[in-house]
Amino acid sequence: MTASSLPTRVPLLDLKRAERPLHDEMKAALEKIVESGIYILGPEIQKCEETISAYCQAKHGIACASGTDALLLALMALDVQPGDEVILPSFTFFATAGSAARLGATLKFADILPDSYCIDPASVRSLITEKTKAIIPVHLYGQSADMASLTAISKEFNIPIVEDAAQSIGAQWEDKRVCSMGTFGCLSFYPTKNLGAAGDGGMVITNDDALAEKVTMLRVHGMKPRYYHQILGINGRLDAFQGATLNVKFPHLDTWTGMRQNNAKIYGELFAAEGLDKILTLPKQVHPGRHVWNQYVIRVPDGKRDALRAFMTENQIGSDIYYPFGIHKQPCFVNKGLHWDNLPETDKAGTEVLALPNFPGLTEEEQQAVVNCIAKFFN
Ligand SMILES: Cc1ncc(COP(=O)(O)O)c(C=O)c1O
Predict the structure, then answer these.
(1) Counting atoms of ligand 1 from 1, which one is nearest the CA of 71?
(2) How many CA atoms lie within 13 Å of 220's alpha carbon, on the beta-carbon side?
(3) Would you give per-residue pLDDT tens digits along the chain (379 residues)?
(4) Where are the beta strands (DSSP E) in 189-339?
(5) From residue 6, how far is each of 145, 312, 315, 370 by CA, in Å?
(6) How far, in Å, from the CA of 195 to the mean position of ligand 1?
(7) Which residues contact 116 (CB under 8 A, 6 or more apart)?
(8) Is the C-beta atom of 67 inside 6 A of ligand 1?
(9) Rounded to the nearest whole angstrom, what is the distance from the C-alpha of residue 313 to the centroid of ligand 1?
(10) How many angstroms does the Cα of residue 29 sit away from the middle of ligand 1?
(11) DSSP SS3 for 281
(12) Residue 5: CB partners within 8 Å, gap ≥ 6?
């Protein structure tokens, strides 16, 4: 590849590349819904609940309006109340914390492990009290948290785990799929996820029959039968357009995941060829299992991250920061009487992480252009 043959612009994400071959099928599926007049729940939703829960190696899938609602419904099913404590990482998307805070729970922020960016089981253990009602590990960027240690803690203290797998459908801890190991697993179908809908969507996954029934009720205002409200729920239903879109896209999920994995491998080779693996910390699969690479996130040391990002933006190379600081520093949580110990790894990651383009359909030439731009910055 000569430098002049490389693309001059690389987007962080281009959904259309993977989806374009499916556009006709997607439109036909949506047209079928218009013809049927069944817009909320219905057969398309039932189908995606069956296929996706089976894919997650679990018995039940309850589709809902978003990944945020999936977390909220799971925590509601566990009866999380004001005064209860929920342990979660601070280094995650806001929804992980927002759903627990909305129920009045006290948030206990644990630190992360620097290599996987997932919750540190030792930090979790140190935060357990008699008020702990749930632990929410987040399988960040496409990689499972250390579920062997976390399930051992869960069993020892009899505290349920709600897996936040919004970024990690299909990821595995050894041979176990995320969402199958905790009491609940929560998925998001936000369009940027590995399996994205054509709008918002989510799913609660569980192996527990009684809890599945409870979530199914909570999703429709706690209603069963019609107009008899047994418990206080929410309107968390998923619409049929999203179910139909998921059903068209689902058969391609593993192919797309394979492309993300291949992109990650190629980045590793290209960075090494430039000697940049000595300067940057490249992401890696930390434990045996399956990394599904929702994000390819490098660490840029010595306070150079923001300057590198500005240089990349100037050169039309997409990037983003997931996340610039921990949730414990979010304006809505500071000065609210919450207490947390130091979260050094969270704080450090916030200043160093940089997500690079990684999506199905990204070309090797584009990856070379990304790496060349970063090499130019450091030379
Ligand atoms: C880790 C994590 N948890 C929860 C969510 C919430 O999902 P949604 O946007 O579908 O509500 C997201 C989505 O970005 C996420 O990345």
Answers:
(1) 4
(2) 16
(3) 556 677 889 999 999 999 999 999 999 999 999 999 999 999 999 999 999 999 999 999 999 999 999 999 999 999 999 999 999 999 999 999 999 999 999 999 999 999 999 999 999 999 999 999 999 999 999 999 999 999 999 999 999 999 999 999 999 999 999 999 999 999 999 999 999 999 999 999 999 999 999 999 999 999 999 999 999 999 999 999 999 999 999 999 999 999 999 999 999 999 999 999 999 999 999 989 999 999 999 999 999 999 999 999 999 999 999 999 999 999 888 876 666 668 999 999 999 999 999 999 999 999 999 999 999 999 8
(4) 202-206, 289-290, 296-299
(5) 37, 15, 13, 10
(6) 13
(7) 140, 143, 145, 146, 286, 287
(8) yes
(9) 25
(10) 26
(11) strand
(12) 365
19 C-alpha to center of ligand 1: Å? 21
| Span 20-250 CATH architecture | 3-Layer(aba) Sandwich (3.40)
Decide whether any atom of ligand 1 lies within 6 Å of the 188 Cβ: yes
Give the whole-angstrom CA distance, residue 93 versus residue 327. Answer: 8
Q: Which fold has domain 252-378?
A: Aspartate Aminotransferase, domain 1 (3.90.1150)
99 lines ligand 1 (CB under 6 A): no
96 lines ligand 1 (CB under 6 A): yes
pTM for the whole thing? Answer: 0.97
Beta strand residue intervals within 19-68, DSSP E: 60-64
Domain positions in the chain are 20-250, 252-378
The answer to whether the CB of 66 is under 6 A from ligand 1 is: yes
Tell me how far apart the 2 most distant CA atoms of the chain are, in Å.
69
DSSP code at position 250? G
Asked whether 142 lines ligand 1 (CB < 6 A), one says no
Q: Which two tokens stand for residue 101?
A: 């805070």
CA neighbor of 341 nearest in space, from 114, 153, 109, 118: 109
- CB of 163 within 6 A of ligand 1: the answer is no
